[in-house]
Amino acid sequence: MVRVPHGGSGSRRRRGQGELEGQVLAALRAADRPVNAGWVQERLGAGLAYTTVMTILTRLLAKGTVTRRREGRSFVWEPAADEAGLAALRMRKVLDGEADREAVLTSFVTTLGPDDEQLIRALLAGGDEMHGADDTDDADETDAMDRAGETDEAGGTGDAGGAADEPES
């Protein structure tokens, strides 16, 4: 059971921003099926009002973090994605909120470590190297970079006459 602090007025603390949303999401992830708001309320315990749970679920729905569907007279709720998918959604929202997407992506990519950079390259190359990243040789990495238009043989941008878009034989 996810515990929510409660007690007399002297012992009650104010939750941090997003803390209750996190607890509701954790409860939904712990469920083995879509659940109704009453189930979430019971799971959180500590005298949390049903209307509070409904408010949090509705806010999460507006953010695209959860989905709902009608089942009988009520709705059942579930996370829109797993934890990785939700993190990706948050990253996408940050990116969508910026005017200069190229600058944001460039800054992000330059802060990645070598392992993350290799994973990104494999993903951009179509995922061929994702599951066997340790088996990837330097030629495959160079080909992936060429297809992504990042480098050419001289270390340039690979933008000469669209050749970067052509897969090498």
Automatic annotation (TrEMBL):
Alphabetical list of InterPro entries matching this protein: BlaI_family, WH-like_DNA-bd_sf, WH_DNA-bd_sf
Region (Disordered): 127-169
Alphabetic keyword roster: DNA-binding, Transcription, Transcription regulation
Source organism superkingdom: Bacteria
Key word Lipid biosynthesis present: no
SUPFAM superfamilies documented for this protein: Winged helix' DNA-binding domain
Pfam families documented for this protein: Penicillinase_R
Family to which the UniProt record says this protein belongs: Belongs to the BlaI transcriptional regulatory family.
Protein name (Swiss-Prot/TrEMBL): BlaI/MecI/CopY family transcriptional regulator
Protein source organism: Streptomyces solicavernae
